[in-house]
Design goal:
With about 450 residues, this protein is mainly alpha-helical. The chain contains 22 helices and 2 strands. The two termini are about 40 Å apart.
Length: about 450
């Protein structure tokens, strides 16, 4: 058995052991890189450690620290409350509003930040009699759509691995495609799980408001309650009860934290457009340290919000992939890829594998491993050069995250009301596993097939 094959088998074993024994994948991959690199390949320790992605980890450290401060100070909660307060009794807008809010929050450093929105969304769904499966898919789509933003961990991971592999990559386009595909997913879920009934109820609520404004009897305002009640359980639907959000004012420090968020975002796009050689993580870390200097207790508390697990995961996976690359295993896979009569079929299989593994394991981990392995399909002679295969691969791997076997799906199920959880679990399982095939088909047809004969 060749050394290259041994190294690839070890990579598969890392994913398997992580799933079966629940051992941290990044730690396993890092140990595997040391063992395979030093003992099997014969590299020096310095060569193995040279593949550790310091630049990428600085980005993750800086961004998760900065947005950890934003969550610690309640700025993220304030943004959510203000956004939800604008919805009022327009119940059909609630899923879309939560999709927008969840996507925006998922963009802010780590998609895990959007997990704080999930209980709010599921509570709103129960209160306003919105199908829990619809809201679950909405929140999953928001989280995975925002996760591929260039300011979020998954987006940073894909950008880092793609550029390290020499693949032309546009982070803004990746984000746009991700949000576009997930918007389509939400649209389908909206009408499959009661969207028309929500629209009818919204119209009924609007009619009730108009009647009240005209001085009729279609609605009443409860004294001192701040609620508007609309009657009617027939064809017209039911006007929902709404409560105005509590008006809270941000303090001076919270305002500074709030301003730091657009400063980081604008700074990132400015740096990208001007092609300035400055690490985004350094900018985020500078802002975070400045905020911690203003309030040291907040800075210390926010250190616990840094996503060290993801930092270790990305570091371990990329370090091991570096060993594979130097060993020549990637080149050998390239030869196999070139021998396949249909590169499109190979691309489909890779996307299905990415989705299937991602449903049960780590999306970041599988992307970090598969993007370098997919490079041979993109280079001249591979058959898919100058296409959107990397975009298709990243989105395919993320669409399955609503399945309740992973963190996102499990959080959604756990946030549902107790009586809804069995049904929610079944629906999200079917939906998530169906995305293993539907995702690659849709993304490859949209991003790859049109360019094959261009």
């Amino acid at each position: 058995m060749s050394v290259e094959l041994v190294a690839l088998i070890v990579l598969v074993a890392v994913f398997a052991l992580s799933a079966i024994r629940n051992v941290h994948m990044g730690a396993l991959a890092f140990v595997a890189a040391l063992l395979v690199g030093v003992l099997v390949v014969g590299e020096s320790l310095d060569d193995v450690l040279g593949g550790f992605p310091v630049d990428a980890l600085l980005i993750l450290l800086g961004i998760t620290y900065l947005f950890g401060i934003a969550r610690e100070t309640g700025v993220v909660d304030w943004l959510v409350d203000r956004s939800v307060g604008l919805i009022g009794d327009r119940v059909a807008l609630i899923p879309w509003a939560m999709f927008v809010i969840g996507t925006l929050v998922a963009c802010l450093g780590t998609s895990h930040a959007a997990f704080t929105i999930v209980p709010i969304a599921m509570s709103l769904a129960h209160k306003h009699k919105i199908h829990s499966t619809m809201m679950g898919i909405v929140m999953s789509s928001a989280i995975v759509g925002g996760a591929l933003a260039p300011t979020s961990i998954n987006g940073i991971t894909v950008m880092t691995v793609a550029r390290a592999s020499g693949i032309p990559y546009n982070p803004g386009l990746m984000f746009g495609l991700s949000v576009g595909v997930n918007t389509l997913v939400v649209l389908v879920a909206f009408f499959l799980f009661g969207g028309r009934e929500l629209i009818a109820r919204t119209r009924a609520a609007g009619a009730a408001r108009a009647t009240v404004a005209a001085g009729g009897t279609g609605g009443t305002r409860s004294a001192g309650s701040g609620r508007t009640a609309g009657a009617g359980h027939g064809q017209g639907g039911t006007a929902v009860l709404t409560e105005p959000a509590t008006a809270t004012r941000l303090g001076a420090y919270q305002l500074v934290v709030l301003v730091s968020i657009p400063v980081l975002i604008v700074g990132f796009f400015t740096i990208t457009l001007l092609d300035v050689d400055l690490n985004l993580g350094a900018v985020a870390l500078t802002l975070a340290v400045f905020l911690a200097f203003l309030k040291p207790d907040v800075g210390r508390a926010s250190l616990a919000r840094i996503d060290w697990n993801t930092i270790l995961l990305l570091g371990g996976i990329i370090t091991y992939v570096g060993v594979l690359t130097r060993l020549g295993a990637i080149d050998q896979l390239g030869e196999v890829a070139r021998s396949v009569s249909s590169p499109l079929l190979a691309a489909f299989v890779i996307c299905v594998i990415a989705g299937l593994v991602s449903a049960f394991a780590s999306t970041i981990g599988i992307l970090g491993a598969l993007i370098p392995l997919a490079v041979p399909l993109l280079v001249p002679g591979g058959g898919l050069e100058m296409t959107g295969f990397i975009y298709a691969l990243a989105i395919s791997a993320s669409l399955v995250d609503c399945a309740p076997f992973g963190t996102t799906g499990a959080t959604i199920v756990a946030s549902g009301v107790e009586e809804d959880r069995p049904r929610l679990y079944r629906h999200l399982t079917r939906w998530g596993l169906s995305m293993v095939v539907i995702g690659p088909v849709v993304t490859l047809l949209a991003f790859v097939v049109p360019f094959l004969w261009a």
